[in-house]
Amino acid sequence: MRKRWLFILLSLLCVNLMGNNINLARINLSKITTIAQIDTVLILIDGINTPISNAYKGAYTMMKAKYVSSPFKKYAYFNEGKALIERAIEQSPNNVEIRYLRATLQAKLPKFLNYYENINDDIDFVLTNLKTAEISKEVKYKIIINLVAANLISKEQKATIFYQLNYARNTSNISR
């Protein structure tokens, strides 16, 4: 019995740490300035094998291309990151956060890489499903703010979505 409780406690601790590491990946994605920082985040999420962790591994791996000089390494990091993101989409095609990541990455990449065909579909999917997505309100807000910053949606769309998110929160509190 004692071993069972210890196992449950350790399992809960691991799940909590994995969630915290994914949150660190979310928070730091736009703050990275060195390849060492990228490697640190990749180490933190390396042992996690979920669609969302694979998407962040892909995003961070693609970012490594910015910090190397060899065009061969740049292209290798791009391809490795792309494969991770596409695998995450295959594993969880209705995940708003993964589709958001792919859209923002595709929008930033040079067109000659031919990895831009999903931007509009992903943006439409995110805007349609963000309100009901099972992610925190803070992540939802961050997604919208980053889509505006990347010029992928207008400020008017941002205002409408913020209103919908706040209205949904306020009406759900009233019904309780």
How many β-strand runs?
Answer: 0
- Residue runs with pLDDT of under 50 for 5 or more positions: 4-18, 171-176
Principal-axis shape equals globular
Mean pLDDT: 84
Tell me what the structure shows.
The chain is mostly helical and 176 residues long. It has eight helices and no strands. The chain has helices at 2-28, 35-45, 51-64, 71-91, 96-108, 119-129, 137-149, 155-174. Helix 1 (2-28) runs antiparallel to helix 2 (35-45), helix 4 runs antiparallel to helix 5 and helix 7 (137-149) packs antiparallel against helix 8 (155-174). Residues 4-18 and 171-176 have low confidence and may be disordered.
Topology summary:
Layout: H1 2-28, H2 35-45, H3 51-64, H4 71-91, H5 96-108, H6 119-129, H7 137-149, H8 155-174
Helix pairs in contact: 1-2, 2-3, 3-4, 3-5, 4-5, 5-6, 7-8
Which features would summarize this protein structure in a list?
176 residues; mainly alpha; disordered C terminus
Short description:
The protein is an all-alpha fold and 176 residues long.
